């Protein structure tokens, strides 16, 4: 499915969060949204996902192409996992399937499939409190994949995890994108994640959030490895783009605190 973010603007009462954001998301493309705190990344993701209606512009689905068996074209992966503690891993995944007309065996097959894809098959009956943060986020990914989305919307999915787990999951995300050719929008503060995962990085400036630059990364995702000179160069270029505003945003937050 191709999306067109067409002249999207959004204001929260007096706060102009986004102004005239315009870009396309092609099928199979991973787009990272980066920029300083408060530049409107999460607002834009919510608008793309249909959780928030923009005060100007629109998000167009330019075609209806969806993966076979797609139950929900736009699906979220949350920073804080958003798992129900009283449900098992399989039960948490089942939750997103229960409102759909699937037989029990179809549901069980889908659950088994996404558990296998996320290396969780042995943990189907575990409860969230028994899992590490990295495992919980794998469940978040499995739950999102269970509906076979056309576009995966990921809001800082690694930011609640410790450094080692981030490295491991970043490798897994990279494998997943390379293997499945999935379309995704990935919000992050972390430029290393952006250059490992994205074909296209949309850098926003703040007050109001506008596009500063759309930066293409033409290294195939399957060939990207940590520390690769091309990726380091892209990361440095992105940092040069947002550095001054990131510092300004940080000072402001310190001041507020
Ligand atoms: N519900 C809301 N009501 C009022 N203002 C809001 C609301 N949500 C966000 N804002 C404001 O809109 C602007 C953009 O916020 P948003 O959370 O989208 O930015 P962000 O880039 O995702 O920030 P961060 O990187 O810190 O998560 C900020 O100035 C923020 O204070």
From TrEMBL:
UniProt xrefs under Pfam families: ABC_tran
Keywords, in A-Z order: ATP-binding, Nucleotide-binding, Transport
Superkingdom of the source species: Bacteria
Gene3D superfamilies reported for this sequence: P-loop containing nucleotide triphosphate hydrolases
GO MF term set: ATP binding; ATP hydrolysis activity
Keyword match Cytoplasm: no
Listed SUPFAM superfamilies: P-loop containing nucleoside triphosphate hydrolases (SSF52540)
InterPro entries documented for this protein: AAA+_ATPase, ABC_transporter-like_ATP-bd, ABC_transporter-like_CS, ABC_transporter_ATP-bind, P-loop_NTPase
ABC transporter domain sequence ranges: 3-231
Similarity section: Belongs to the ABC transporter superfamily.
Name assigned to this protein: Nitrate ABC transporter ATP-binding protein
Organism: Thalassospira lohafexi
